[in-house]
Amino acid sequence: MRRVIAGFAVVALLAACTALQPPQAEQASTYVLEAMPAAGAPRPRRDLVLEVPPPRARPGFDTPQMAYTQRANALEHFARHRWVDTPARMLAPLIAQALEQSGGFRAVVQAPSLAAANLRLETELVRLQQEFGARPSRVRLTLRAQLID
User: 67-119: per-residue pLDDT in tens?
Assistant: First the structure.
């Protein structure tokens, strides 16, 4: 009888220990920035090479965390949603691709490059956040660009 009771006690203790295991963490969702080519009128081609360095990002936006706001000037980040890389790093090839597809330049190169460029397009990611202050929510993207000769 003691062995049966001891066996039940061991089984009960093992069952109780499995209930103390931490809950399974929810998987984080990851997202990428993509762009569809814009259809437009052909642009006159200039015999210029444009260099596009990676965009800089303002503080709070140089992270793979996805930002949102619920009230003015209060930047927060989603707990389970992330970018696969920083938004600035994902924007660099999209900017270069869009400028190359415009047909307005002899060549568009991403910095660093060994090619000699006539122009340089400096960009800064000022803001990329989802705003919940109004319904429906909206995404605000602010990009500052400076063309340097």
Answer: 999 888 888 999 999 999 999 999 999 999 999 988 899 999 998 888 889 99
Tokens of 44: 């006159």
**How does DSSP assign 47-98, residue by residue?**
EEEEEEPPPEE-TTSSSSEEEEESSTT-EEEEEEEEESS-HHHHHHHHHHHH
Q: In terms of C-beta density within 10 A (0-12 exposed, 13-18 middle, 19 or more buried), how is residue 92 classed?
A: middle
Helix (H), strand (E) counts: the chain: 2, 8
Residue 107 neighbours by CB distance under 10 Å: 14
CA distance 81 to 77: 8
How far is it, in rounded angstroms, from Cα 53 to Cα 124?
A: 10
Separation between Cα atoms, residue 43 and residue 41, nearest integer Å: 6
Count of CB atoms situated within 10 Å of the CB of 5: 9
Give the CA count within 13 Å in the CB-facing half-sphere of 72.
0
